[in-house]
Amino acid sequence: MHKSLHTHIIGLGAYLPDRIMSNEELSKRVDTSDAWIQERTGIKQRHIIAKDQKTSDLATAAARQALEDAGLTINDIDALVVATTTPDMVFPSTASVVQYKLGGVGFPAWDIQAVCSGFVYGLAQMDGMMRAGMFKRVLLIGAESMTRIVDWKDRGTCVLFGDGAGAVVLEVSDKEGGVLGSVLHCDGSYRHLLKAQHPYPGASPDDSMMDMGIDAAGVAAIEMKGNEVFRMAVSKLGEVVHEILAQCSISADEVDWLVPHQANIRILQATAKKLGADMNKVIVTVDQHANTSSASVPLALNKAYRDGRFETGQLLLLEAFAGGFAWGANLVRWSK
Ligand code: UT7
After folding, report:
1. What's the distance, CA 125 to chain centroid?
2. Catalytic residue at 248?
3. Which of 60, 79, 89, 164 would be 16's cystine partner, CB 3.0–4.6 Å?
4. Which CATH number characterizes residue 232's domain?
5. Ligand 1 pocket check: which of 187, 230, 232 to mutate, most ligand atoms within 8 Å of Cβ?
6. How far is the CA of 16 from the CAs of 104, 114, 224, 305, in angstroms?
7. What pLDDT score was predicted for residue 2?
């Protein structure tokens, strides 16, 4: 690992599907209300993927914008990684589809599955590989079509999720700044609290699908014990923000922006409080996007970048909590 090398974010992009579903519209489908959703989650609306779109389409659009922002083409890229929970297919990887759609060929492309923490995991992984000298420029994308895997009859989960993609171009160089460090965790003893089962759980060639109670669509649906997930998210995120700061020898008051995974405004508020940060230091998109899983951190990054909120030299703390449970954080000195 080259201590003198640093991984920088040099381009950002995003894509959100055109169709917007308001809480009002949702309340005509399930027994809920705009007031309940806003009060308990902070969500006002979510974007919904079009019938003829796939996760790779959202990822490709976000990646194109990130490449343009970096002033590069796909030919300048050495590796492409898509963090996703909602791949186009079981295989090949969504990353290989995105590589093809962008006109790239030859360089490695693969998916990362760490659910809502996929982008944070991906940034940690790429930072390590890039500083080890494997790649100079990487496209890292978080892309999801979560509304394809929600149970639209379950008001406890269907109000929470949305679709979208965010992308960054990473470049390694000897310039100071960029990714300062990452912390990753997983505790599989909580795996049952937030999950979407494979469409054909444990199927053998002799099983009848009908006997297994699988509907015609055979779609995996999200199941969540909301309260327990909430409690653990608040607890573990409160710990991990201090862990990353200690690892990088940075004090909490030096953090300029908290860029959190966007699951619930109350989780964002609780994490900000544990950091001792005012809410005006927190990038909030959950009201507009809902929970877009691995896309939520890069979507929030892109939004604040496009709004002109980040200044060179500022400190950004990225964090996420996900099914698994898998959680983590990255500390980034903005160098764009
Ligand atoms: O991205 C990965 C991480 N995911 C998360 O971090 C999600 C974490 N969990 C949460 O954000 C919250 O637990 C929820 C938003 C999912 C639920 O909020 P809550 O304040 O924990 O509500 P609850 O589950 O305790 O339910 C309270 C009441 C229940 O009614 P009763 O039993 O008190 O009569 C629910 O049936 O609210 C009811 N309820 C709803 N009412 C209207 C649950 N969902 C809805 C709904 N509309 N959509």
Report:
1. 14
2. no
3. 164
4. 3.40.47.10
5. 230
6. 23, 21, 25, 16
7. 63
